[in-house]
Amino acid sequence: MLRDITIGQYFPGNSVIHRLDPRFKIIITIIYIVMLFTGDNFLCLAVGAVFTFGAILLSRIPLKMFFKSVKPLFIFLIITSLINLLFMSRGDVLFEWKFIKITDEGLTTSAFMVIRIVLLIMGTSLLTYTTSPITLTDAIERLLSPLRKIKFPVHELAMMMSIALRFIPTLIEETDKIMSAQKARGAEIDTGSFAVRAKNLVSILVPLFISAFRRADELATAMECRCYHGGEGRTRLRQLRSAPRDYIALAVTVLFLAAVIVLGKLF
Amino acid sequence: MAILETQELTYTYSVGTPFEKTAVDHVSLKIEEGEMIGVMGHTGSGKSTLIQHFNGLLKPTSGKVLLDGKDIWADKDKIRDVRFKVGLVFQYPEYQIFEETVYKDIAFGPKNMGLDEAEIKRRVYETAHDIGLSEELLERSPFELSGGQKRRVAIAGVMAMEPRVLILDEPTAGLDPAGRDKILDHIKSYHERTKNTILIVSHSMEDIATFADRILVMSKAKLFCCDETVKVFARADEISRIGLDVPQITRVFGELKRRGLDFGKEVYTVGYARDLLLRQLKEREVR
Mutate which of B13, B20, B90, B112 to disrupt the A interface (most A C-beta within 10 Å)? Predict the structure, then answer.
């Protein structure tokens, strides 16, 4: 059950997308999000979709994994489309029953919103699917480094992020194990009434917190043993270097953004 | 009739993804009431996956698990009853402890069974005694105890459900020799008192050799063999070929046999080896 979560999962590979400089990938993703939200007609979305699927094809990650990334947000998508469908009063009425009134404009808006969100999730999943968490936090640290001038703890933030990311799978595994152990003692966790389940949650959370604290303690000791003393004067194993392909990718993205803006103005 | 039986049990992880892996492959075996069974196998051989099927934590991809001849998945809503009949102690079980007192933690399982207060109390005191926890420890916080004591509290938590089959996944992993012997001794005396079926997963051939009536060996997701201890260790060559060891003393006697000193019997415990040697020496003296 918990193993099915794909958000933040990394699929190792050697495609063009994998090899892009992570700093560029983050900037491209931001431009991509802007691109999806500036376009306000279906033509703009189509351009966005071409960009998304083109990038997915280049990444050589099976399309199935991207649909899987949308799955956890399925309920959210349904709610969004329902709200747009039911509360849009503009346009011609297609269907009316008691207080429910569906207009053609409501229909198109809800379809538009759902497609936009699906593209958004798929595109941003591409970033985490093709970039390992460590490189990603490295890139964030570099991108935020100008903020150091105003005493913003950039290195500490990046370190906390990479540690948190590193321990997500570990904690999921641990939760699975503790759940099985308590189920073996007859605890009702995925069956039984809500009250019983809530009470039994304690039997999972207490051991989980204890082990998280223990791990934190051990990790701190291990880091100190290796003379970790913060970001001051720290060098890196992997230097981030930009290549011509990074600039090309950026240029292509900007081109797409320009196309969306133009199409949005024209139609 | 066998108390536990599997028929062509197969389990595949993450079906339909690139991470698909068959962990248990067509395993059929029978476990009789009252047996003490040692479970051996390499890391990743599928033994942990296999034992999680015995109490219905995992549902077979195909095949069946029978308890008293009845398919445990015949009625999904009854699966909790199966967990009370087949108790499973995981590896490093001390990490599942959560209550404020040792008493409450041991009582968690029996409470989930819906027993009354008096019966719970009887069970907690009895299992605490069985596993060698003194009564004054029962009111202490489990988190103040030593590693070995915590381990015993966690084992008692499963024993207190009085399961007809008790499965322990490496109950002695990470303990010092004294703690290890203590736990094994307590499990042995529990077995003698209750006559319940016990399965112990262990990497130590020496340990398995001293307690097991039968040994179940897993290798690469398949059942390699499930036979009497003597017969399994007699296949020393095959056992070492799949990356497992036979007890040191068995290896010593194997080498002696190769050099022409055949005792005519398979030796797998030090105690037995000593008796055998002393007897042989005496016979020589008489001659």
Answer: B112
Q: Is residue B8 part of a domain?
A: no
Chain B residues touching A188 at Cβ < 8 A: 80, 112
Rg (CA), chain A: 23
Per-residue pLDDT at B31 exceeds 60: yes
Rounded to whole angstroms, the Cα distance separating A169 from A159 reads 17
Residue B280 structural domain: 247-287
| Percentage of chain B modeled with pLDDT above 70 | 99
Burial class (CB in 10 A: 0-12, 13-18, 19+), B15: exposed
**Predicted model pTM:** 0.75
Task: Answer whether residue B20 is part of any domain.
Answer: no
Tell me: do B121 and B226 sit in the same domain. yes
For A11-50, what is each residue's pLDDT tens digit? 888 888 999 999 999 999 999 999 999 888 888 999 999 9
CA dist B47 and A84 (Å) reads 53
**B193 and B209 share one domain:** yes
Backbone phi and psi for residue A49, each to the nearest 5 degrees, phi listed first: -65, -40
Chain A residues in contact with chain B using a Cβ-Cβ cutoff of 8 Å: 3, 177-178, 180-188, 191, 202-203, 206-207, 210-211
Residues from chain B that touch A208, judged by Cβ atoms under 8 A, are none
Q: What is the tens place of the pLDDT at every residue in B181-226? A: 889 999 999 999 899 999 999 888 888 888 889 999 999 889 998 8
Substitution target in B98, B150, B158 with the highest count of A β-carbons within 10 Å is B98
If asked whether residues B252 and B202 sit together in one domain, one would say no
**Residue B89 dihedral angles phi and psi, to the nearest 5°:** -105, 120
Residue B14, phi-psi category: left (phi > 0), alpha (psi -120 to 50), beta (remainder) = left
Q: CA of A128 to nearest chain B CA: how many angstroms apart?
A: 18
Among B87, B98, B161, select the one facing A203 at the smallest CB separation: B98
Q: Are residues B231 and B143 in the same domain?
A: yes
Residue B11 lies in a domain: no
Question: Which residue in the set B80, B90, B98 is minimally distant from A180, CB to CB?
Answer: B90
**pLDDT (mean) for B97-114:** 93
**Average pLDDT for residues B106-130, to the nearest whole number?**
93
Q: How many domains does chain B have?
A: 2
CA distance A93 to A95: 6
Nearest to A177 among B14, B55, B90 (CB): B90
Same domain, B175 and B103: yes
B236 plus B96 within the same structural domain: yes
**Amino acid A28: pLDDT:** 95
Last residue of a domain, which of B242, B258, B278? B242
With respect to residue B141, please indicate whether it lies within any of the assigned structural domains. Answer: yes
Per-residue pLDDT tens over the stretch A140-174: 888 998 988 898 888 888 888 888 888 888 888 89
Q: How far is B274 from chain A (nearest CA, A)?
A: 41
- Residue A1 pLDDT > 50: no
How many A-B residue pairs are in contact by the CB < 8 A criterion?
Answer: 55
For residue B167, what is the domain's CATH number? 3.40.50.300
Q: Which residues of A touch B112 (CB under 8 A)?
A: 185-188
